[in-house]
Specification:
Distance between the termini of chain A: 33 Å
Radius of gyration of chain B: 20 Å
Radius of gyration of chain A: 25 Å
Strand content of chain A: 25-35%
Largest interface: A-B, 25 and 18 residues
Helix content of chain A: 10-25%
Structural class of chain B: mainly alpha
Structural class of chain A: alpha+beta
Largest sheet of chain A: 6 strands, mixed
Number of helices of chain B: 10
Number of strands of chain A: 21
Oligomer: heterodimer
Strand order of the largest sheet of chain A: 7-8-9-3-10-11
Number of strands of chain B: 0
Shape of chain B: globular
Largest sheet of chain B: none
Shape of chain A: elongated
Helix content of chain B: over 70%
Chain lengths: 381, 222
């Protein structure tokens, strides 16, 4: 029954549906949708076509094939020959470099985007928007008299001025320093709760996407690999490629074995031992798989005394790298394997825990790979 | 002071600016933002009058606009007059000669407007025409004023081409610079001196305006 309802997906009012296909000039095969009030992050490495997809939605680049639909309104449909001008799409777009009008004050930058609302209403609303992005008192400054963070806020206010049906953000935090970035992110997280339109955020920063997005769409070489919640994309990606793009490093090949046990339905031979796996997904005994042990599911054993959980997939290794990143530290373990290729396992621990356990390069350390956290994927062909 | 020549020069400069500024905006925008086949050739053609000897240009214009030529016949058919040795002829010549002085600063000014800024205008709901009036024109303004000042001053000073195509007819084609030459030939040095001074002052202010505008523009973006 669940499948039947998914088949007759009725487009909601204001929902953005995007499908873009082309081979030139940039090969694209992207498809995703974004519900009103939802923030979808378009993630991928530089050159993966994220910005081109965003510009296609705005109608700023010619699109060859596919469709862009906002609620009932068709903005682009290759089959029907529909291609609405950028002016008539009612889109709010924050450019990476903000693209403010340099000769206009902050207020006029917003007011000019009011889409012909009469005065004094336009001025009042523009002032309200300026206030809503915390720029009261700076209305008469020109962009060159504003800081990077203030410019971004003007750009955001301008993007919201025309009562947009979609808000598009192209790397909106890349041009400001870390402190400003954190503050702007918090402001956006607050502001978006009041917006009942789809929001698309383009970013190459995975942490940013994980922190802000309701769902993440992973783009690679112009193609959508997977779309899902941040947790699903990070912990249970559909393919090793997605896992790597999300920064996962603990990816290993293996062959699945299925014992007749309810507690641990799957088993993998690895590093001279056996790993128990709680979820085997669609895989069957003898399937060649890639498996992922996300850092979250690698648990450091206390070295002073043993505890119960240590019986769960214990793995021994020698620390080859130990990097303090701040509150967290990154540990690289060289696993004692009898295979010809040495295997490295990366995980994060709280820095104080690492210190207490005397973790340092050259030390022998034991960890548990939690059976419930090990995720199986098809092996790449 | 030859006021007839002076007003003729001003009239010629006014006509040249009036025709060339709108035309130049259209050409400069196209050269700044669109890429098309043969764009380099068009750019080279626009710049050609800058390096061509005025006599060479004058020669070709004279041949091309002669009453027997296609352009000359067409003009004669419409107006009943000739292009050579007439005011209309020197306006036409002046337009050609001033093409690079009008296009160059305007093209640079339009090129300096980031593509994103125009796109932001479109996305904000501004039509192409509104974008031109409210975004492009104010941003390119210093370049347009530069072009105006250059064309105006240069037209006042143009000599070779005007002489070739217009000759030296008082009240019709004898501009200030030609009048100076005319007086010098007649050993009326004092009269020539006054007119030379007038041209000097005009040219100085023309260049000063260009300089000022260029500095203001780079200051704003810097």
């Amino acid at each position: 029954m669940a499948d039947a309802t998914r088949l007759i997906e009725v487009p909601q009012a204001g929902r953005l549906d995007v499908e873009i296909r082309q081979t030139r000039p940039v090969p694209l095969n992207a498809r995703f949708s974004c519900a009103p009030g939802e923030l979808l992050a378009l993630v991928g490495p530089s050159g993966s076509g994220k910005t081109t997809v965003l510009r296609s939605i705005a109608g700023l680049v010619p699109t060859i094939d596919g469709h862009v639909v906002s609620g009932e309104r068709v903005w682009f449909d290759a089959a029907k020959g529909v291609n609405v001008r950028p002016q008539d799409r009612h889109i709010g777009l924050v450019f990476q470099d903000y693209a403010l009008f340099p000769h206009l004050s902050a207020l006029d930058n917003v007011r000019i985007a009011m889409r012909g609302r009469p005065e004094p209403q336009a001025s009042e609303e523009a002032r309200a928007l300026i206030a809503s992005v915390n720029l009261q008192g700076l209305e008469n400054r020109r962009p060159d008299q504003l800081s990077g963070g203030q410019r971004q806020r003007v750009a955001l206010a301008r993007a919201l001025a025309g009562e947009p049906r979609v808000l598009l953000l192209d790397e909106p935090f890349s041009a400001v320093d870390q402190q400003t970035r954190d503050r702007l992110k918090r402001e956006l997280a607050k502001l978006r709760l009041r917006l009942e339109i789809p929001i698309i955020l383009v970013t190459h920063d995975i942490e940013e996407a994980l922190a802000l997005a309701d769902r993440i769409s992973v783009l690679y070489h112009g193609a959508t690999l997977e779309t899902g919640t941040p947790e699903a994309i990070r912990l249970t990606p559909s393919s090793p490629a997605v896992a790597r793009l999300m920064g996962q490093t603990n990816l290993f090949p293996g062959v699945l074995d299925l014992p007749a046990s309810e507690a641990a339905p799957g088993r993998l031979a690895w590093a001279g031992g056996t790993l128990e796996i709680a979820r085997t997904g669609p895989f069957r005994a003898g399937d060649k798989v890639m498996w992922l042990a996300a850092s979250d599911h690698v648990v450091l054993h206390r070295r002073d005394r043993s505890s119960l959980g240590e019986r769960e997939n214990p793995v021994h290794g020698r620390v080859t790298e130990f990097a303090v990143l701040g509150e967290q530290s990154l540990v690289t373990l060289q696993i004692e394997a009898n295979s010809e290729r040495p295997m490295a396992l990366n995980f994060k621990v709280a820095t104080h825990a690492a210190r207490r356990n005397g973790i340092a390069v050259g030390e022998d350390v034991a960890v548990s790979l939690l059976a419930s956290g090990l995720h199986l994927m098809p092996r790449e062909t | 002071m030859d006021w007839t020549a002076f007003t003729l020069s001003l009239k010629l400069a006014a006509w040249t600016c009036a025709v060339l500024l709108p035309l130049g905006i259209v050409i400069a925008r196209a050269l700044a933002w669109s890429s098309f086949k043969g764009k380099s050739i068009v750019e080279a053609l626009v710049m050609l009058p800058l390096v061509l000897p005025p006599t060479v240009l004058g020669y070709y214009l004279l041949v091309g606009l002669a009453p027997g030529s296609v352009a000359g016949q067409a003009f004669g058919f419409v107006t009943g007059e000739t292009l050579v040795f007439s005011f209309a002829g020197i306006v036409f010549a002046s337009l050609i000669v001033n093409l690079p002085f009008a296009i160059q600063p305007m093209q640079r000014a339009f090129e300096a407007i980031p593509m994103h800024v125009r796109e932001a205008a479109w996305v904000s709901g501004l039509s192409s025409w509104q974008t031109f009036l409210r975004i492009e024109l104010p941003l390119a303004w210093p370049g347009l004023v530069s072009a105006f000042a250059l064309v105006f001053a240069h037209t006042l000073g143009e000599f070779g081409v005007i002489l070739m195509i217009g000759g030296n007819i008082p009240g019709e084609t004898q501009t200030l610079s030609i009048a100076i030459y005319d007086r010098m030939q007649a050993f009326r040095n004092a009269e020539a001196g006054v007119m030379a001074l007038v041209l000097l002052v005009f040219s100085f202010f023309g260049i000063a305006i260009v300089h000022l505008m260029t500095r203001r523009r780079s200051g704003r973006h810097g």
